[in-house]
Amino acid sequence: MSGQHCILVIEDDPAIRRGLVDTLAFESFRTIQAATAPLAVEAALTADCDLILLDLLLPGGDGLSILRRVRAARPTLPVIILTARGDEADRVAGLQLGADDYIVKPFSPRELVARVRAVLRRSPARPSDLAALRFDDTGITADLARREIRFPGGTRADLSDKEAELLRYLALHRQRALSRDELLAGVWHLDAGGTTTRTIDMHIARLREKLGDNAAEPQLILTVRGKGYMLGPVTVIATDAPPPATGAAP
């Protein structure tokens, strides 16, 4: 099962990085590598990985700043901190920022693999596992795999790739409102600093129009004043679930 997982290894020391990669490869994990903070940020926000091993000391930045960026853009992506620091404050800071675990160097290959597997076991399903979502009490289904919206009676509307990604991200974090900055980072993989978030509002407006959501009083994609956007009541359908019905919801 571990061969299905890809680990992003963020470590500046070539010898340690090679040791990590070799250990993970021996256990059939795939790996992606980054040795500097700028490369680490890019990979952490865009790479299709299942877990990050994050060193705290990096050229061009620090691991805690990267962790903040990851948590804003990809809240469910597991992160394990690697640090040679013995200071308890560093470990506590990492955990408070959302790290799933930490390992203090030096550590054994067995410990590394055991902790990686433990974190992966308790991690939530990834966004790619979300095949479709059904808006409760409407009969409207957004099929994210087929990139289309299906309505009761059989009519359909196409979704662009970005519209499907936006719906997937909203569905994955459906328990809370998402700010425009978080959506910009999580869906567009862009830093909100100095970047307009008008594109978020435009995509939300287009989605509401395609869904037939009332722009004046939306019920499917809600605006939460001062916080951002969130979905109304939905049922999430995983990739291994039966295909959703196209008729009215029971």
Task: Offer a quick outline of the entry.
By secondary structure, the chain is α/β, with parallel strands linked by helices. The chain has helices spanning 14-26, 37-46, 63-73, 88-96, 109-122, 161-172, 180-188, 198-211, and strands spanning 6-10, 30-34, 51-55, 57-58, 61-62, 79-83, 101-104, 130-135, 140-143, 148-150, 156-158, 221-224, 228-231, 234-238.
Helix content: 25-40%
Largest sheet: 5 strands, parallel
Which spans of ≥5 residues are poorly predicted at pLDDT below 50?
240-250
Strand order in the sheet with the most strands: 2-1-3-6-7
Name the helix and strand elements from N-terminus to C-terminus, one letter apiece. Answer: EHEHEEEHEHEHEEEEHHHEEE
Calculate the terminal CA-CA distance, rounded to whole Å.
37 Å
Structural class: alpha/beta
